[in-house]
Amino acid sequence: MLYLASSSPRRSALLKMAGYDFTVAPAHVSETVLHGTPAMQIVEQLSARKAESIAKLHPADTILAADTLVVLRGRILGKPKNEESAKAMLKLLSGNVHQVYTGYTVIRGTKFLSGHEVTSVEFYPLSQDEIDRYVATGEPMDKAGAYGIQGKGALFVRRINGDFYNIVGLPVAKISRILTEVEKVGK
Predict the structure, then answer these.
(1) Which tens digit of pLDDT belongs to each residue from 123-148?
(2) What whole-number distance in Å separates Cα of residue 175 and Cα of residue 109?
(3) Fewest Cβ atoms closer than 10 Å to its Cβ: which of 74, 76, 156, 169?
(4) Has 67 been annotated as catalytic?
(5) Which of 21, 61, 67, 142 is catalytic?
């Protein structure tokens, strides 16, 4: 049995698109990390915490967890707290290149695989009106960096370098290969 240690509807949709049968088992863990920890380590640490917490409940099964952050010039942009913080994040991203980091962890028995994927995203310059209209849709409120590339936020993206699905929240091709390998080892 595969468990997805995430309540993200986007991660669920990506796993379904890839043909996986799984059960959603959201992990409720502390997301506190040491100040100054690099983004790649943060996403790996948080995905590991989530996977380990669910693995304790289902030790004979395969657990997948992920965590995503948006980083602009070393500054981490998490999920916006309110509309004003969403607008501020989008203003920062406007006309700039940022990175999206997704950490992933897969656990099956004693097998523990963890890593991260990074994708660069360049935004077109955004007007205040564009930002205000987008935030009014509510779409950015539950997303790191305050935008969803798979939704209306796609209109802001000039180019990407890397895995598109990583920006959505799960580098699904890489994860598929890892799950295949873990299943081979587990048999």
Answers:
(1) 999 999 999 999 999 999 989 999 99
(2) 17
(3) 74
(4) yes
(5) 67
